[in-house]
Design a protein that fits this description.
single chain; about 120 residues; mainly beta; SH3 type barrels; six-stranded antiparallel β-sheet; two-stranded antiparallel sheet; 10 strands; about 0% helix
């Protein structure tokens, strides 16, 4: 299937149900089962950076004379589909849905347990 975007065009921002500061559980990949707090969200590429998850090592060369090279470890982004919002009551990650209240405000609700996420 061909991509509908034109060359050089930015991808559209995705609407995600996750927010910065949410506690999430990783459901796939090398860190499956780990939980952590969302540090940053990239809505254009649908990726999140989770605290303590997907730690990568980068070897940095010295940029100036007399400077030393170093090895830097940091959290790399993972796709948002690989994380679920962590429910404290059930003790695991659960999917979310949006409930529209009578006063037209929105509330995030866990699908299985039915409790409010906020």
């Amino acid at each position: 299937m061909k991509n509908s975007r034109k060359r050089g065009e930015e991808p559209k921002k995705m609407k995600l149900l996750l927010k910065k500061g949410d506690t999430v559980q990783v459901i796939s990949g090398k860190d499956k089962g780990n939980t952590g707090k969302i540090l940053n969200i990239d809505r254009r590429n649908a990726r999140v950076i989770v605290e303590g998850v997907n730690i990568v090592t980068k070897h940095v060369k010295p940029t100036q004379a007399g400077q030393e090279g170093k090895i830097v470890k940091f959290e790399a982004p993972i796709h948002y589909s690989n994380v679920l919002l962590y429910c404290k009551e059930s003790g695991k990650g659960e999917r979310l849905k949006i409930r529209i209240n009578d006063d037209k405000s929105k509330t995030r609700i866990f699908v299985k347990s039915g409790t409010a996420a906020d």
